[in-house]
TrEMBL record:
Name of this chain's protein: Putative thioredoxin
Keyword Signal appears in the UniProt entry: yes
Pfam families: Thioredoxin
Signal peptide: 1-20
InterPro entries: Thioredoxin-like_sf (IPR036249), Thioredoxin_CS (IPR017937), Thioredoxin_domain (IPR013766)
A GO CC annotation given for this chain: cytosol
Keywords from the UniProt entry: Disulfide bond, Electron transport, Redox-active center, Signal, Transport
Natural source organism: Porphyromonas catoniae ATCC 51270
One of the GO BP terms on file: cell redox homeostasis
GO molecular function: protein-disulfide reductase activity
Length: 170
């Protein structure tokens, strides 16, 4: 009897865990609605939450950073100063941990380095183009040369070191 109860309890726990992960990964309509409401309220009161980091989409990226349709086999940077692309998701814990550190770097290097965020749930095409398999994935883009890619939460020191590295590549 103990064995049966233990097996049933474990099965129920497994099912609850699996359904919770699936809802986050697939972007359920409740998540989408909540995200849309949060976006709408953030847009309604921009002065309440001024950010040095800009949230971008595929159209902005193609026009201002990299036109992946025009240059599908080679990264051709279109920016006027080094940039940082943060590929993230709202439900990702390490992404939420990284966000204030990138915000601080964006403020510190305002006018010298542009910092952008790309939500992989909303911009699946960009996640695919850049080969994002794990988040947070951060791409540090120098004016010339090869971008530097990192995966996972970074310390403020790691962000500083990588910014210094891409700034030298000018």
């Amino acid at each position: 009897m103990k064995k049966i109860l233990l097996t049933l309890g474990f099965s129920a726990l497994s099912l609850m865990t699996a359904s919770a992960c699936t809802a986050k990964a697939s972007g359920s309509s409740a998540d989408t609605q909540t995200t849309a409401e949060a976006t709408a309220s953030a847009e309604a009161a921009p002065e309440a939450k001024a950010s040095a980091v800009r949230h971008i989409d595929a159209a902005f990226l193609r026009a201002n950073i990299y036109d992946y349709k025009e240059h599908p086999n080679k990264f051709v940077f279109k920016g006027s100063r080094p940039a940082i692309l943060d590929f993230y998701a709202d439900w990702c814990g390490p992404c939420r941990s990284l966000s204030p550190k990138l915000e601080a770097a964006a403020k510190k290097y305002a006018g010298k380095v542009d910092v952008y965020k790309i939500n992989v749930d909303n911009e699946a095409e960009l996640a695919n183009i850049f080969g994002v398999r794990s988040i947070p994935m951060v791409l540090f883009i120098p004016m010339q040369g090869t971008p530097v890619q990192t995966v996972g939460d970074l310390t403020a020191e790691q962000i500083e070191e990588t910014i210094a590295q891409i700034y030298k590549a000018k």
